[in-house]
Amino acid sequence: VRGRLLLRGLDLDVGTRLEETSGVVELERLVLGDAAAATGTLRLDHARVAGLALTDVVVPVRWADGILTAAPFDARFYGGRLTGRVAVHTRAPVAFEGALAATGVSLEALRGAVGLDVEFESPTGAFDDLVARGRVEVRDADLGELPPVASLPALLGSLVPDTRKPRFTRADLAFRIEDERLLADQIGRAHV
Q1: pLDDT at residue 110 in the model
Q2: Nearest-CA neighbor of 97 among 136, 125, 61?
Q3: What DSSP string runs through 105-157?
Q4: In this predicted structure, what is the pLDDT of residue 138?
Q5: Which of 79, 70, 76, 80 has the alpha carbon at shortest distance from 14?
Q6: Count of alpha carbons within 13 Å of 104, Cβ hemisphere only?
Q7: Per-residue pLDDT tens for 57-91?
Q8: Is the pLDDT of residue 19 over 70?
Q9: Are 121 and 97 in contact (CB under 8 A)?
C-alpha cells in the first residue's frame, strides 16, 4: 500500500497527547500480516505534543521487526529548532528510547535563548519507568526576572543593606530523571 493521508485537526493519545495535528503522512510502503512493515514521512504544518507547539515538522518513520523509528526528525520549536530520534518497541517487551536537542529556543519570560540535550528511555514503555539524562543551557537572558532568583534581593536585603537584584545572564543545568523524580546534578550560573 502507498499513498498520502491528509491530517486536519487530528487528536491522538499515543502514550502522550498529540493534538491539533495538521499536515500529511506520505506512506511509501505498508505491508500487513506477520511481517508487517512500513516506511514514510510525516510532514506537519502544526502539532501539539504533550502541550508543546511544533511547526514545520519533518519526521521520516520506519516500522519493521516490531520497532517504530522516527529519525532523524526536525521541527520549529518556540523560535528555535527541535531535532532528535525516537524508537518505540511495539512488541513485548514494549519499550521506548530516544534523544532530543533544542537550540535557539526563545522563552519570553527569560528574554534569552535556551538549549536542551536529553537522552531518555523506558524499558517497560511506561512513563513511570522513564530514565533520562540531559543538560539545559540558557544564554543572554535576564534570569533575575524568574521568581526564585528575583526573591534573592529581598532575602539578602535583610542581611546586607543596599542589595541590588542580580542580573544573571547565563545558566547551565545538568539533570537526570529517575524514579519519577527530576534531580539536578549540577547547576551553574553567571551574572553581569
Answers
A1: 64
A2: 125
A3: EEETTTTEEEEEEEEEEETTS-GGG-EEEEEEEEES--GGGSHHHHTHHHHHH
A4: 85
A5: 70
A6: 8
A7: 999 999 999 999 999 999 999 889 999 999 999 88
A8: yes
A9: yes
